[in-house]
Known about the structure:
The structure holds 2 protein chains of 2 kinds. Chain A is α+β, with helices and mostly antiparallel strands. Helices cover 25% and strands 37% of the residues of chain A. Chain A has helices at 13-19, 65-96, and strands at residues 31-35, 39-45, 97-108, 117-128, 131-140, 145-157. Chain A starts with 12 loop residues before the first helix and ends with a strand. Chain B is mainly alpha-helical. Chain B has a single domain (3-82), classed as Non-ribosomal Peptide Synthetase Peptidyl Carrier Protein, Chain A (Orthogonal Bundle), CATH 1.10.1200.10. Chain B has helices spanning 3-14, 21-25, 43-55, 61-65, 70-82. The longest helix of chain B is centred in the middle third of the chain and has 13 residues, at 43-55. Chain B is globular and about 35 Å long. The model of chain B has no long low-confidence stretch (mean pLDDT 95). Classes of the chains: A alpha+beta, B mainly alpha. Chain A binds chain B through residues 102-103, 126, 128-131, 152, 154, and chain B through 40-46, 48-49, 61, 64.
Amino acid sequence: MSNENTQSVRLNRHEVLALLPQQEPFRFVDEITEVDESHIAAHYRFKPEADFYNGHFPGNPITPGVILLESLAQVGVVSLGIYLFALEEGLAGVESKLALFVDADVEFSGLVSPGDKVFISAEKVFFRRNKLRTKAMMATEDGKIICSGTISGFRVDR
Amino acid sequence: MSREDVFQKVMEIIKPFVKNEDVFQQANESTNILQDLKVNSARLVDIILNFEDEFDVEVEDEDADSVNTVGDAVSLIMEKLAA
């Protein structure tokens, strides 16, 4: 591990997205619009052709809550985690470690149909002893809340 | 605050994260938080933060690493309260 790689680096929003390990067909972030030490914001448009709509539900496609939660976690825990790890340990820290989703307390208050665009934001509650907790929220384009709550990730070796 | 008082409060704080209720009912200072009570290791951070709030102390990460048993937690908090 070279010295250069472990030096603190402030990634920009594009670099964070490029480092997000989740890929198609399990990536639920299109663009990160803001990221800093205390918060992150992103958006995603649910693809109408996504396979899970065939079963959830036949003839009445609705995005599963667990997928909404996954989207929240990919933004609020994994992406923000990448940013914070790079600040602490440089690119070496991002390449060797990953924030694994460990707990959530989330309420769902709206439905997401195929093709809907959602906006995800998360505020850091704490990042201590390898645990990152954020207060995260998903909303529609016109600001209606779809789901919100706290989610956490734990930094582990990849 | 007596050691017994601190022990009772520590048990209250740990309780929501315990997976083995039977062991918890008979827990004492030598009970291991992760191994005996089956608390998820990622929850130790929540427990430490709750100690800080409840006892109004600051627990450094290095101190937190030394907490394995309920008694370790009680000793650490007693130490912090006395400081």
